[in-house]
Amino acid sequence: MHSSSNRPSHGGGHPHENHERDRSDSAGAHPHARDYSKTPLVVTWEVTQACELACDHCRASAKPERHPEELSLDEATELFRQVATFDPQPFFVFTGGDPLQRPDVFDLLERAVDVGVTPSITPATTPQLDRQAIERFADIGVNRMALSLDGATAESHDQFRGESGTFETAIEAAEHAADLGLSIQINTTVTASTVDELPAIADRVEDLGAAMWEVFFLVPLGRGAALEQITPGRAREVMEWLYRRGTDAPFRIITVEAPFYRRVARELQSEAGSSAGAVGTTGAGNGFVFVSHTGEVYPSGFLPESAGNVRETPLPELYRNDGLMEQLRARESFDGPCGDCVVTAECGGSRSRAFAATGTPTGSDPLCPWATEEG
What we know:
single chain, alpha/beta, 4-stranded parallel β-sheet, globular
């Protein structure tokens, strides 16, 4: 989930088996013969910002109360119709907050299916995520459910999230999904406090039978701004490990807000004499687009610069023609190391992290392992 997904369980997941799959070695190629200037790979809709949890890393700083100006059922249905007009159709993700905080969430899912959009969902791990809810997801035809694990044990996961019981709820939800035949992915946030548990979390992902592991490199936004990030050098080590772990894993590994994973993978492939092709990635406004609970359209849930509102302008028009979106696709115009980098065309750095660090979406990504040495 790309995630925005895009952070785990609160706006950014990309719960799809084929998300970010790119087997082409040419820098300008796109998965599924998709031109990202015309059609995104992933559309994520923040169904609501309401959530019973108050996780320490939440981008949205979610609160229990719903916003009075959320898109209505009919307005959301119009959004689904707009998504259905993209060709090829993007993956569509219901996220939040917690989608289950909307009493009409199952009606929304059914409407999406009725207009020809196959939704995925990233529910929060609250008591509402019980077997009955998951059974309804499966019956409606949800493509995939994403669950967050930020620790390999209840102690470490619940401590990171600041909420007791969330680990147990996630494990039980995964087991219910397996019983019901609903595909799952696991989302994990990488920070200085979680990074050492990644190998054990990967084992959990395998034990749970997940189809995908989405590894999200923290963007310091919302409550997440108070968390300690890893260093660029550590990020490179983690990505090298992720690539090697993924070569024989029964699940797919994708990274979110860390597009330089492509460069890491290519270097490791070159060392091994492999021609497996590049790992894929989408970027803010370049393959990925985020629609807020009130209809505002952003390049990413972590890049709070609006391109407009779907209540006034159709999503395809905003995605294709807004000046900010076009700027984010013109990677040669980026500032500093990201603009000068030899792999800008296929990486471009995290625009969300660049914005958080520099105040401009065209700045350089401070987590990139090459930014200092090439700047």
